[in-house]
Amino acid sequence: MTLTHEAPATTAATVESLTLAGAVNHALADALAADPSVVVFGEDVGVLGGVFRVTDGLAARFGEARVFDTPLAESGIVGAAVGMAMNGMRPVVELQFDAFAYPAFEQVVSHVAKMGNRTRGALRMSMVIRIPYGGGIGGVEHHCDSSEAYYAHTPGLTVIAPSTPQDAYSMLRAAIESPDPVVFLEHKKLYWAKGPVDSVRRVGLGRAVVAREGTDATLVAYGASVLTALEAAEVAAAEGRSLQVVDIRSLAPLDDATIEAAVRSTGRAVVIAEAPGSVSVAAELAARIGERCFEYLEAPVRRVTGFDVPFAPPKLERYYLPDVDRILDAVDSLNWDDR
Amino acid sequence: MAHEDSELLPGETPVRFLDQDGRALDETRYPMPPLSELQAAYRALVVARRINEQCSALVRQGRLAVYPSSHGQEACEVAAALPLAERDWLFPTYRDAVAVIGRGVPPAEAMVLLQGDWHSGYDPREHGVAPQATPLATQLLHAAGFAHAAKLRGEDTVVVAMCGDGATSEGDFHEALNLAAVFGLAVVFLVQNNGFAISVPLSRQTAAASLAHKAIGYGMPGVRVDGNDAAALLAVMHAAVDRARAGGGPTLVEAHTYRIQAHTNADDDTRYRDRAEVQEWVARDPLIRLRSYLRVCDALSAAAEDEITAEAEAVAAELRDALQAEHVPDPEDLFRHVYAERTPRLEEQWAMLADELARDAESEHAESEHAEHEEAR
Ligand SMILES: Cc1ncc(C[n+]2csc(CCOP(=O)(O)OP(=O)(O)O)c2C)c(N)n1
Ligand SMILES: [Mg+2]
């Protein structure tokens, strides 16, 4: 599986084919090399290189002072990162799995998100919280949550969910350089997907991207759902329907301008996300599209999301996750009769 | 870092130098601080008490939304700030405005939170004081992280992190002490055990012999100290700060004290404690104790007392003046600092509010013109 939003890779020396996990690893290494105030810590990120091997080799290369394991204490990891950021460091912490980030929630919401505002910018929280998230990998309970809405709902946080190795690399570099705290969500199902990564390419935070051009309807997605949306567009194309795919990438802030332009150009929209749909990022996207594109819309905005149930056990997850058929059914329902 | 148990356990009795009449006790575990420092501490205590009284009065006048007073705990407040060097940092709670001011933050800036103008009113970097933390024990982790950063850069900064007895039950207390001990960080954890977390007594927070006993579980020394004895507190805090600065790692200090006022003005403490108990602690007032000692030592003249009283009055007046002035916070501030740069969404939302305000101003203007017109008729 090769995944990229860009034209086929050039032959430039800066381009490599990497998995998304490898791209994150490269971004961390390059950031550690570029800025002595960057430190990487979390659970098993040292010798082991992380349970997903995302930090593989970093401790050996940069030393224990800069890449280290902490006690098992998620609030401790994030709380200590707050103190470090107060004292001039740029911590990049890993919380091992989506659901195991919850003990840190108070620190994230009450301090990471608010410290810059509370102190009128005197203490900016330049830090990144990396969280492997999402399902579709046969994981058991507590290992497959899509927890993005909790963070995206919180003013002060920037929330990024890349779907390609290039975006993972470039947006993580931008996240580490950002003066604001960034929750960086890495979809576990995408960790092993390969794509070209150009290490000089910059992608700013807060920008969506059109991942596939199309004229009949717009599929709006992020994370692993971008892949599903692209597959759906492929199938639809064979059936003679041209679907555009927008990769949101930045869940907070949302790139209203790009989303608006895309949806206006087709007049129809389906939002796709695997998180439960109620009060979700998908709900926000649908609401904004409704507010901003109403007079361009030929049909109500549809959402294809996870059900409002706890994430399914491995043998049931295929029923839970949005798939190509469910997306195409939603597309079929977009008032095509009068065309 | 491995330690002998005996080094880590608190002593049988709290460290105490002075009895209630200001007589020096036979305390051999720490050296008595020099008189000059005790004089400085007394000055700070008097100012602290005056700030507490003034702020409680300002609440009654509606100038402060709320004030969690440290009345009765002033010796702890003073001993938290005094031993620190300028480059050091203090991580205070909502109850520690007096310690914040002790670090040099102007009193009016320290009151911005409680006055309701903004969430914090001082520049933390300028004074080495983190914003006062309200979510219990969370600041202890910030202190550990701050000290960790200093350690990574080879700096000898020391951090004092404050919390109450109730906060020791929070998960972040455990995570912070454990982290600080594992990484050998220069943090002094100062717990003001004032017997209550709002209405809940210490017996509902812990079954341990003392809070200081928890230290051994983390591999750091725990010290119990009389929290109404400024001399003892200073001795203990100096030792802990020196140890941290020399690379010896963290210390947990438990100060036994008492909150004389209710939790805040909004609390009714008659529902959960006896007046007799409060009176017992009023009699153990930290100011009277140190004053008696200094008088016995001939180290506090009537002239010096007058001067200290005048200084305290000046601080109180500064507070009153700052809070009597009518403050009109700028609504645009709501949008200014959420991110380093305003997002397009926040620009839109501010534009909406600005428009509402402009229309309000216009109609107010029209109304007042109309009223003037009517008057003229
Ligand atoms: C996480 C959290 N839970 C609850 C509260 C509400 N609360 C504020 S102060 C307080 C009591 C704290 O007692 P203690 O730590 O002993 O400090 P003291 O107020 O006695 O100085 C409580 C429960 C809070 N601020 N934060
Ligand atoms: Mg208490």
From TrEMBL, chain A:
Protein EC: 1.2.4.4
What is the superkingdom listed in this entry's lineage?
A: Bacteria
Residue intervals of the Transketolase-like pyrimidine-binding domain: 18-193
Pfam families (alphabetical): Transket_pyr, Transketolase_C
Keywords tagged on the record:
Oxidoreductase, Pyruvate
User: Which cofactors does it use?
Assistant: thiamine diphosphate
PANTHER family recorded for this chain?
2-OXOISOVALERATE DEHYDROGENASE SUBUNIT BETA, MITOCHONDRIAL, 2-OXOISOVALERATE DEHYDROGENASE SUBUNIT BETA-RELATED
What protein does this entry describe?
Answer: 3-methyl-2-oxobutanoate dehydrogenase (2-methylpropanoyl-transferring)
Species source reads Pseudolysinimonas kribbensis
